[in-house]
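Bug #77: duplicate submission created two jobs. Keeping one. Sequence:
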Amino acid sequence: MTTHVAFETGAEQGRARREPTTVVADIMTPRVHACRATDTLEHAARLMWDHDCGAIPIVDARGRAIGMITDRDVCMAAYIQGRPLGQIPVTVAGARRIHSVRPDASLAVAQETMKMHRVRRLAVIDLGGNLVGMLSLADIARVARSSRDPRDPLHVEQVASTLAEVFRSHAPRPAGS
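Kept job's structure:
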């Protein structure tokens, strides 16, 4: 865990105290399996199966994240295209936009990004644009804790708030329901 120095006033009367602050790099999944834009859905599905994950970043020839493909994307493309997965490029089905965060970002920033874009996973990108990990809601939920400070991004209520916002229905509810 990375530790940052926090300064408080008021009750602490200007005394500095160390508070551990969890950053993205502390809980992200560092070994990321990615597919290239030229790969097929069959290859992406195989990576998901072999590595027990539901999303794979799509990278360009330089290894920079350019998109994301999920297991749902694979299923829907197979249904809509009506062709074998080996004949469908990942770029046809995957998101061409990727939401990301830096490894040194706070979990509060990561959660706000997830809420804003209503995504369960963020690519973790270094300053050079390289993919260095993935952060998922599951990663955050695994380290959630009871905390005295309800503003703590790992406080169970903050994590629940992020979950609720990410999974909020996209469709408006009919009147009276």
